[in-house]
Amino acid sequence: MEEEKVLPVIDLSLAKGPTRAGLVKELHQALTTVGFIYLKNVDGYDEEALLRHSKWFFSLPMEQRMAISKKSFNPKCSNEYRGYFPVIPGAVSHKEAFEIGSKQGKPKEELISLEEKFILEDNQWPLEDSEEGRNFRAWMEVYHEKMTEASRELLSLIAEGYNAPSDFYTDIFRDPHLSTLRLIRYPARPNPPDEARDGDAVIQTAEHQDTTMVTLLATFAEYPGLQVRWWKDDSIIDVAHKPGHLVMNIGELLSYTSGGALKATRHRVIDCCGDRLSVPFFLEPRFHANVNVVLPGCEQRESQPKYYGPWLLEGICKWAEYKDLCRRIEKETAKTL
């Protein structure tokens, strides 16, 4: 009888009380095999409200979205990293998105490196002088905080799965951490380039591993398209929407801290002949955090520091939406040498 290929379901409400030990074992098993899970009972997750706010943002006229764009796409804008970006014609990745960081304050100017100045910046917000705009901002700021808290709890559970202290990862997430909330719209793609085809599948986001620590992805019932590599036979499976559940996966950085034991599973998004909305949250350390930490019992490495900033830039520079930013950082850095 063929194995049923479905993602495990983890109930985060079991993290409190005597059920925590069992949850730690269950989570460890899932993340050292499949690497993707459904996550339920996440405090602060309101699927209907998130979908409503996402639809509101992408219904704004293009000129209003472009007014809060990244400088790469609108030279009149000052932000380099946070904000909106449109669909990039001809790219394999076919999406538009709005990216938000936390609302924490910046560190003192003299402590910021040149590269960090491109990354640490205030969020941009649409229609800030309107009630709708203010409501959107307030809701998204709270959602970012709630997903940060949920991700940190997951890291505590993961650490406990290796008999490490619950606060094993705490230091690398001291403010200003760089965690990103991204609202995404994938438009239908009727005439894709050859590079965006895989047999009968039309690619919206190419197959990849996330580079960060933890991803919490909100999907919605009317928008299929997420696919994952199954861990046992390398086949592609569809990830069905489960109402009220987030999809959680780990990134290359978390896998790195386990010597590869925790699986950063490859995944992609395909076109299902209509618009698709989704909202990932990426838990990311602060720019100068030393991420060369190793969980107990995992493969050891040389002990020299490895900082998150270069790791981040190496990861994002692979994507079309960040190419111009990476070129500018490289150019400005070269001036200082």
Provide a descriptive summary of the structure in words.
The structure is a single chain. With 337 residues, the chain is of the alpha+beta class. It has 8 helices and 13 strands. Helices cover 28% and strands 18% of the residues. The chain is globular.
Q: Provide the gyration radius in Å.
A: 20 Å
Which structural class do the helices and strands define?
Answer: alpha+beta
Number of helical regions: 8
Instruction: State the major sheet.
Output: 8 strands, mixed
> Which overall shape is indicated by the principal axes computed on the Cα atoms?
globular
Strand order of the largest sheet: 1-2-11-8-13-5-4-3
Q: Termini separation (Å)?
A: 63 Å
Average pLDDT, to the nearest integer? 93
Q: Which residues form runs of ≥5 with pLDDT under 50?
A: none
Strand-and-helix sequence, N→C?
A: EHEHHEEHHEEEEEEEHEEHH
